[in-house]
Amino acid sequence: MSNVSYYTAEGLKKLRDELDHLKSVERPKASQAIADARDKGDLSENAEYDAAKEAQGLLEMKISKMEEVVANARLIDESQLDTSKVLVLSTVKIKNQTNGMEMKYTLVAESEADLKAGKISVSSPIGKGLLGKKVGDTAEIQVPNGVLKFEVLEITR
């Protein structure tokens, strides 16, 4: 079953660049490590060879998973997004109704999330709770600490 993920142009480029790096730089390094270990003699008692083969297997698995992610990635056309409700790539200004604190977050794909930069994942509890809300709506979000209530103050792109 494929999991479609939505990315900004910047996020998708970063993902493709990382995949290219793994294929063009890391894969040859792994092959060279195996060749170097093979040159050191008897393979039946060569721990370095075994470690190099295992590292290559893990690298190939990572490449395979990233290829699947890239294949299922969809680019979001920001100009076509509705600003009347919270969607992926919405920048949302919210107010915590418990303490009155205001915060601004941009909802992004899980791989692009960066709390320090104000980007939260749409699959996080807060991200899920805000999806579909409109200005003036209150989102009641279940978090491990209890229930948080946020009022949506503003939605922008």
Kindly describe this structure.
It is a single chain. This protein has 157 residues and is of the alpha/beta class. It has helices spanning 9-38, 47-71, 125-130, and strands at residues 5-7, 73-75, 91-96, 102-108, 119-121, 138-143, 146-156. The protein is elongated. The protein starts with a strand and ends with a strand.
- Globular, elongated, flat, extended or rod-shaped: what is the shape? elongated
Strand order, main sheet: write it out.
5-4-3-7-6
Q: How would you spell out the order of helices and strands? A: EHHEEEEHEE
User: What is the CA-based Rg, rounded?
Assistant: 22 Å
* Distance between the ends: 31 Å
Low-confidence stretches: none
Estimated helix fraction: 25-40%
Main beta sheet strand tally, sense and closure: 5 strands, mixed
Beta strands, count: 7
Let me know the average pLDDT.
Answer: 86
Which class do the helix and strand fractions yield? alpha/beta
In short:
This protein has 157 residues and is α/β, with parallel strands linked by helices.
Write a concise keyword list for the protein shown above.
two-stranded parallel ribbon; five-stranded mixed β-sheet; about 40% helix
Topology (elements, then pairings):
Elements: E1 5-7, H1 9-38, H2 47-71, E2 73-75, E3 91-96, E4 102-108, E5 119-121, H3 125-130, E6 138-143, E7 146-156
Helix pairs in contact: 1-2
